[in-house]
Amino acid sequence: MCTFCDIVDGKISSYKIFEDSQSLVFLDIHPEVPGYMLAIPKKHVVNYLDADSVSLLAVNRAVQTVGRHLVEVAGYDGFNVLNANGQAAEQSEFHLHLHILPRRHADGLSGFPQSKRRPQQDLSQMWESLKLPTMYV
């Protein structure tokens, strides 16, 4: 069974920050920073690739709503939104979820990879291998 579906169904209690008919934002029970939250669609979808547009819109709208509250009301200076899709990206719970990390100036956190070794790549070759065919546009 899915832990996040159990939270949606009320089988597991949570500290709800925001909820509407299609999404839920709650405090992470193992926070790495104060105020660490997770935003999920109530419908079970595995990740971005599995999600329908309604679920994606709902969870992103919830993140925007909570983000505005963090900055305009709760006194934070900003926030990070992080997501992992698939095991290779370190997705740990296979129900789409976005991590929301409230941020303050000079909090000492980094929300981006800090690799000391940047890959050498020919951008034109990378572009050729990654650009979407016109059928997707």
Average pLDDT reading: 89
Helical coverage, percent range: 10-25%
Strand tally is 5
Gap from first CA to last CA: 36 Å
Strand order of the largest sheet: 1-2-3-5-4
Briefly note the CATH topology name. HIT family, subunit A
CATH superfamily: HIT-like
Biggest beta sheet summary: 5 strands, antiparallel
What is the number of domains? 1
How do the SSEs run, as a string of H and E?
HEEEHEEH
Per DSSP, the total helix count is 3
* SS-based class: alpha+beta
Q: How would you sum up the global shape?
A: globular
Which CATH C-level class is it?
Alpha Beta
Characteristic key phrases:
137 residues; alpha+beta; HIT family, subunit A; 5-stranded antiparallel β-sheet; 5 strands
Describe the structure.
This protein is an alpha+beta fold and 137 residues long. The protein is built from 3 helices and 5 strands; from the N terminus they run αβββαββα. It has a single domain, classed as HIT-like (HIT family, subunit A, 2-Layer Sandwich). It has helices at residues 3-8, 53-72, 123-130; strands at 16-19, 23-27, 37-41, 78-82, 98-103. A hairpin with a 3-residue loop joins β1 and β2 (23-27). It is globular and about 50 Å long. The model has no long low-confidence stretch (mean pLDDT 89).
Describe the secondary structure blueprint for this structure.
Blueprint: H1 3-8, E1 16-19, E2 23-27, E3 37-41, H2 53-72, E4 78-82, E5 98-103, H3 123-130
Antiparallel strand pairs: 1-2, 2-3, 3-5, 4-5
